[in-house]
Design brief:
Pdz3 Domain, 223 residues, 5 helices, alpha+beta, 10 strands, 2 domains, 6-stranded antiparallel β-sheet, Aminopeptidase, 4-stranded mixed β-sheet
Length: 223
């Protein structure tokens, strides 16, 4: 299908009418399409290539479908009693909706569908002050989406694999269950994160999976 446009949470808080647009690297021509739809004068746009992220667009990207994700950023009142209706920028919300409408119309009128592209860029939120902290450590990634966060035992179910990721390159597939990493048993998402935090990006490791009751060990180079 055509590029998927997925407006997400937090589209109404931003006072500066700045808009982050993720996914411009996931399909041919999407970067130009986004700027074309912005108009003049338009919103202050910041485009990012990543197709993964904590919203609905992630599952489309993992199915190799181009995506665009609109986001105005996080803020200090999120999930707090102080996050009230009078903090919303209603005029800004209307501008974002108008932009989204122009973007959808422009995508619908393209002579050819955008071709899917793998992007190496991963989700990051430049509006989140925690992400700017130098001491914050990055856990090496395999490029999977776990599907059983609530399970206490039985390994980590692979609910999705990021295109072009170390997991995909190694042959890990949706539906696999990760039961060991680097010789350490994986019971649940907690042990998965603990074991991965001890690994090094770029250093090969063995990942043992269950696939249709068959035990397989794959060599993965995490990023």
């Amino acid at each position: 299908g055509r590029a998927r446009l997925v407006p997400a949470d937090w589209l109404g808080w931003e006072k500066k009418e700045r808009l982050l647009v993720y996914g411009v690297g996931t399909g041919t021509g999407l970067e130009a399409l986004v700027h074309q739809a912005n108009g003049n004068p338009g919103l202050v746009l910041r485009t990012l290539a990543a197709g993964t992220g904590p919203s609905d667009h992630d599952s489309f990207y993992r199915k190799r479908i181009p995506v665009l994700f609109l986001y105005t950023g996080t803020h200090g009142d999120y999930h707090r009693p102080s996050d009230k209706a009078d903090t919303l920028n209603y005029e800004g919300m209307a501008h974002v909706v108008d932009f989204a409408e122009r973007l959808i119309q422009a995508a619908a009128n393209l002579p050819e569908r955008p071709k899917f592209q793998v992007t190496r860029e991963v989700w990051r939120d430049p509006t989140d002050p925690r992400a700017q902290t130098p001491s914050r450590t990055q856990i090496p990634r395999l490029g999977i989406r776990p599907g059983n966060y609530e399970s206490e035992d039985g390994g980590v179910l692979v609910d999705g694999v990021t295109p072009g990721s170390p997991a995909e390159k190694a042959g890990i597939k949706e539906g696999d269950r990760i039961i060991a990493i680097a010789g350490e048993n994986i019971k649940n998402i907690s042990t998965y994160m603990t074991v991965m935090s001890r690994q090094k990006s770029g250093s090969p490791l063995e990942v043992t999976i269950l696939r249709q009751n068959q035990r397989l060990t794959l060599r993965v180079i995490p990023e």
